[in-house]
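Give me structure tokens for this 410-residue protein.
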Amino acid sequence: MAESFLSKDTDNPEITVTAMLPVEPLAPEPLAGELPWEVLGAMIQGKSPIDLISMPVYSREEAIELIYNYGFDLSLPEDVAEIEGYFVEAVNFIEHRFLSRSIDWAAHREPLPPADKVPVALTGSRDVINLILIAAQKDHPHRPWACALLKVIHTLVYIQNSPLYKYHAQASETILSRFRQVLLPENDGTVILQGKYGRKLKLYAFEAKHHKPRESILIKLLCKKENVAENVWDLVGVRLVTFHPAQAILAVDILREQKVILFPNVIPSRSRNTLIDFAHFHEMYESQWEQYKQGKLSLDDIQKLFETEAFVTPNETHSSQNPLSSPQYRSLHITCRQLLRVKAGNSLAETRFAFPYEVQILDKESYLDSKVGHGAHALYKQRQLFAARRRVLGSLLPETGNNAPPPSCE
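Here you go.
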């Protein structure tokens, strides 16, 4: 027997506290069996679901219940069709990107593909419930394949249903239009970044990322620890290339001054600076500014400070945050949010949400190195592919000297 106890929260009278007070102590109920330690550990210790190697689902009914609470009602034809679409896309992706014979895996010290195709025993029915049940059976011969497919399907669901992906095109136009207003292309291929009151900064180049391909997003998420679409910060991005490292500071200041970047909208934890020792430059600038006020230096002398290469780069590299980045890659990264007004479908009602975008600033030398040198973007994308492949296929890949657990790219 138990009696109900109602009271008011003394700090907030609007809250009613309800509790069931037992008349006698309740004896603990015996466990039905072993606890699912891996899943519990993942939930408590912050492990990604796509790194699990077991799934505590013991019947088809339980699998259907899992899918329903995940967000899909298998009694609805449209939900069944949507899941089947993810299933087919996952199979095609794994076969095209992870099992491809057109890549010389051995030359890159990567494990050879375990097969040319995903087993037809899994792909023939397109039944995600069957995948879940196979993934839950420790001794099933197709369990690793079922797990690999579920990892990709789970990631595709988040990509497709993220508002960031749905409103990507609208966000891109809104964000990039703000940059276009302060940029003036020159005939020689350079670009002028225009500040207020005639202030200008000549840029070596300006690049804008209008679109990030779906497959590229998928690969990136598959090697991210968090593995959710909201963690793709660079669906929209811009790159400004200055002639000298210290000019990156001027570029940021002009963007701030012109309200292209609003400092309250910068995501602090996402700021990365491997281009210039900011504290050192700040100290040198203030010292010369004092001399200018005393009449010992001219404004031209201070301007030259932004054109010298005599600054030590920070000890931190992008690889300390993202193991897949080249240590030679030097840049200044700022991640911002832009508040968007969007209409859902045919509705006249508007909603607002913050869309993230990335600003990269490099000097000319770092930029050219990123194109053809040690930090080449193609090599970075290749490292992403290899890491995602090892993470998804896992035990399906034969052991090699390079078959260590893949790093997580942030």
